[in-house]
């Protein structure tokens, strides 16, 4: 009876080849969201069709993209029948295939108790503990979903290193119309409880065995996952560049950590730039966008592995620069796009 009832609601069967994953999906919900509703976490990134992290290969059946979304797939990927489940719906029963090392984990919902709140000008550092029985584990660079009062989720990168202590840190930038960011930056207190999903994402360390300079390019709180990556991996034998772009000096909210890294890593190079500093900032450093500063510091012939996290404009510009000017292979370009919730 239950199976028949579900069948009348969920119109099409979605099967992920060689994984045992099957779930029903309707025409009102993206395939990615429907997978999560059914307890599966497929590899994903921006969830808006831009980053291509979630791509699946369609083996049989038909899909359709929601609305007039601009799809970020390359021409070759489209020809090979790849699609983006974050903004696609099933139009028939479909069979698809994971791309590469696609992650499929149980989608858990757990309570996190706020244990520390640090508020800066426009930025809040939030730390919370999960239950001692928590099974949630993350890879440096991943993010979590947090349930907000309207029942939806907001997504934040994890900023700390993985330990068996159930501790998670996120960095929240205040958004004028942000449902969750305003709550965090103004009202949330120690011992409040948050409901957390995940972890998600594929913005993780790759090409670990190759001797290439590591380059991180971030804007704003895009610093959060990079903090987790730098503190989790042994980059001592590599040169590390961190480019951090902000509008005001207050966007540079974790200066003490940068100073610590300068002492820890013999070849750590930090580049900070502001695009629109206040007069009161008394800023004497670089001016302009971080992608422009990058070009002035990194030689065209350098062997680099680039991790970018932040605004879509920065990542779009940087991707074009890396491909056209540096002729960098896609295997060495990794991105995590921060889209404002509208």
Give the SSE order as H and E letters.
HEEHEEEHEEEEEEEEEHEEHEHEEHEHE
Unreliable stretches (pLDDT < 50, length at least 5) are: 1-7, 102-106
Secondary structure tally: strands:
21
Q: Quickly give the CATH architecture of the largest domain.
A: 3-Layer(aba) Sandwich
Terminal CA distance: 40 Å
Describe the structure.
The chain has three domains: 12-98, Beta-grasp domain (Ubiquitin-like (UB roll), Roll), CATH 3.10.20.30; 109-200, Elongation Factor Tu (Ef-tu), domain 3 (Beta Barrel); 213-337, Rossmann fold (3-Layer(aba) Sandwich). It is globular, with a radius of gyration of 21 Å. The chain is 20% helix and 33% strand. The protein has helices at 2-9, 31-37, 75-79, 179-186, 223-232, 255-264, 290-297, 312-324, and strands at residues 12-16, 21-25, 40-41, 56-60, 63-65, 82-83, 88-90, 94-98, 105-106, 108-119, 123-130, 143-147, 153-157, 167-173, 193-200, 213-219, 240-246, 268-274, 286-287, 304-310, 333-337. It has 342 residues and is α/β, with parallel strands linked by helices.
